[in-house]
Amino acid sequence: MTLSDGRSLGYGALLLATGAEPVRLSIPGDNLPYVCYLRTLADSRGIIARAKNAKRAVVIGASFIGLEVAASLRERKLEVVVVGKESLPLEKVLGRELGNLIRETHEAHGVKFHLGRTPALIQDRNVQLDDGTSLDCDLVVIGIGVRPNIALAEKAGIATDNGILVNEFLETNIPGIFAAGDIARWPDPRAGRIRVEHWVVAERQGQTAARNILGARERFTVPPFFWSNHFDLHIRYVGHGSGKDRAIVSGDLKAGDASVLFRDGSELSAVASIGRDLENLKAEMALERGEEFRVP
Questions:
Q1: How does pLDDT run across 239-270, given as a tens digit for each residue?
Q2: Of 100, 71, 67, which Cα lies nearest the Cα of 253?
Q3: Which of 104, 100, 122, 119 is nearest to 35 (CA)?
Q4: What pTM was estimated for this model as a whole?
Q5: CATH code matching the domain that covers 20-146, chosen among 3.40.1370.10, 3.50.50.60, 3.40.640.10, 3.30.420.40
Q6: Calpha distance 166→174 (Å, rounded)
């Protein structure tokens, strides 16, 4: 392996964990000093510092990152507006019922939405939308997704397709080179080949890859898991839905005691829960073992 300064390093095994970079918005004014992205600890500290002297914030992107930033800024007493191209926040991932609950939760805490809209222009203390709406602000945070950093792998001749392709052992098409985290696209035994951009998945893949580098030959079969917090609404999600799954609600979402089961036909693909952590853990075990899961 050759480094940027010309030095060479030998290796018996190599793990690629180059992560992802935020997708950049490309409109006039996208480089103004009060336009921010959140990816690193330094990004977070920068947003916090700017928020101390801000009164109004526009968050572009009704994604997990965008909505969690919106909640955080609102709790810092800023006026917050969320702009999203979707008609309902997170509907493709969590379904209409949970999407509605998330929107209602944010609105109950004072967050305002402009959905079905995209930004057209950022200028001094102002964001203009595609329908001509003008939003005053002194802080803009953009969260419109990330893109995997796979340029190094491509130069090395490693197989890629919306990420670095790995087998069930997280090894690439080149023996001895592994990949984990946001860049890894692996064959999930339930959902097929997927790439997941969540912290717990990256942590677990790193552990599995390390053991396999040491010769374990351990398959990565753990269902993806993530959590998402919105004010006092805490969501736990296990599995991997397609966005086309049938969502079945068990319990009372508004009361904070419910699970949503996502099914592809008769097959369970994912479970999202509120106030039912033990139930979510049982769903994870059922998915991993290929067993049927029933809500008690």
A1: 998 878 999 999 999 999 999 999 988 899 99
A2: 100
A3: 122
A4: 0.92
A5: 3.50.50.60
A6: 10
